[in-house]
Amino acid sequence: SAVISQKPSRDICQRGTSLTIQCQVDSQVTMMFWYRQQPGQSLTLIATANQGSEATYESGFVIDKFPISRPNLTFSTLTVSNMSPEDSSIYLCSVQGTVQPGAGELFFGEGSRLTVL
Amino acid sequence: GQNIDQPTEMTATEGAIVQINCTYQTSGFNGLFWYQQHAGEAPTFLSYNVLDGLEEKGRFSSFLSRSKGYSYLLLKELQMKDSASYLCAVSTGGGNKLTFGTGTQLKVEL
Hints:
- The structure holds two protein chains of two kinds.
- Chain A contains no helices and eleven strands.
- By secondary structure, chain A is mainly β.
- In chain A, the strands form two sheets. In chain A, strands 2, 4, 5, 6, 9, 10 and 11 form a seven-stranded mixed sheet that branches. In chain A, strands 1-3-8-7 form a four-stranded antiparallel sheet, with no helix packed on it.
- Chain B is mostly beta strands.
């Protein structure tokens, strides 16, 4: 299994500001994903963080709002830009359990709980 | 589009057996996962099915029928600590991208 560290674990932010969430994995992984879990709801995939190239965004999510970096195989960041109260959510980093694409379960970080006032 | 359905909530008694159902309609299928999520915590992996049939792992079993687009998670000898949300997720496309259902909130009572 992979150990995933996310920070911050929680934050309270002002409307219009931006916040960057960091995700560090204890081993090299091919696939890293960013999910959002809004209050009382399930997980929604924001994007796949690709090492060395631009992230792949899901429908409804755009790079200007959620820029992502993936400088190497163990680290990624997600920025939530120009925040509004609707962005209040838990943001989760996840990785595949093996370095082989298409195989293995996903492991999740503990999540970053953001509250936007 | 992707559509995954689960009951919103279920209640069961400590020591009993409970079955949580999941039906799905997705474009592509690479496998089905079950995750457990306690309140305020990250989801943790429970099971993975890619072929039809039953996979057993201790008190937890998961079943898959690909032709019916159907899975269930079976929890035996329920314990109070099993009170949690159970998420059904389907892997589609390349890269093991998961689409999650809305989750089933299970409450275990004495």
